[in-house]
Design a protein that fits this description.
Layout (H helix, E strand, L loop, with lengths): L1 H22 L5 H12 L1 H16 L10 H25 L10 H4 L5 E4 L10 H9 L4 E3 L13 H15 L3 E6 L1 H12 L6 E7 L15 H5 L5 H7 L4 H4 L2 E6 L17 E5 L11 H11 L2
Parallel strand pairs: 1-2, 1-3, 3-4, 4-5, 5-6
Helix pairs in contact: 1-2, 1-4, 3-4, 7-8
Amino acid sequence: MLALAQRVLLVVVAVAALAWWLLSAGWPLPLRVVVLLAIALPHAGFMALEFLLQSRWGDPAPAPHPTAAQRLRAWWGEVWNGVLVFGYRQPFASNAVPDEADVARHQGRRGVVLVHGFVCNRGLWNPWLRRLSAQGTPFVAVNLEPVLGSINDYVPIVDAAVARIEQATGRPALIVAHSMGGLATRAWLHQREADARCAGVITIGTPHHGTWLGRFAFSRNGQQMRRSSRWLATMAATEHAARLAKFVCFFGHCDNIVFPAGTATLEDADNRHLAAVAHVAMVGRPEVFAELQRQLAI
């Protein structure tokens, strides 16, 4: 469903860009090009606004304060990743790399469950999925639906994915989660009391303590990601140090979605800072995949 919606949006943007180009014939070429880019890359302006808000209300602690050059690099990287992820991988290639959880081939190996974030699908992970497939690592990448539903709705989806890995490998799963996916994973651990079924969790830019931008959310899951939301407080009250010690939390001082930066960390977890990189681009950082490889080898 999300892939179809994103394809429709891309068609609308393409038609608007073409219409502008045809109707603006005779205008100065530099102006035509600037407006064309603004139409074709509408997310660039929204992200610039997010970075402005983050610079004002995004306390970088416990990371160092980012420089202007780091913010600019992070913004451009996120614009480019937005094109790759929302302009191709998710709308057109979300099923390009099928899950690999074959019981006969993967018994005894460590497997991975990949959980995407808000308004994303499994296509986010395509580069990871190709690498995991090439090295023979079993994996399941989920689609979280309904897209704008409660995070609690995703617990059965995560549970089913973990069960597939358990069946294929005979071992607890490693979970890698981006953004809201980390909250879906924590909700699964809480509701299913699943600590023994989880070998470890790597979260990437997850709003463990909510995000400042959540105040503008209208969807159920967005409201749950507000700072100090009742949903977050209720879940946190049930957690214990042994569970949180399973987490490696990657966070960033240039995260344009989850800020202040400390909201993406957890007490008792291994919290690791990624410098000069924005929210979606964090998924592509080599440090994150390297940590997965380390845990797969244990």
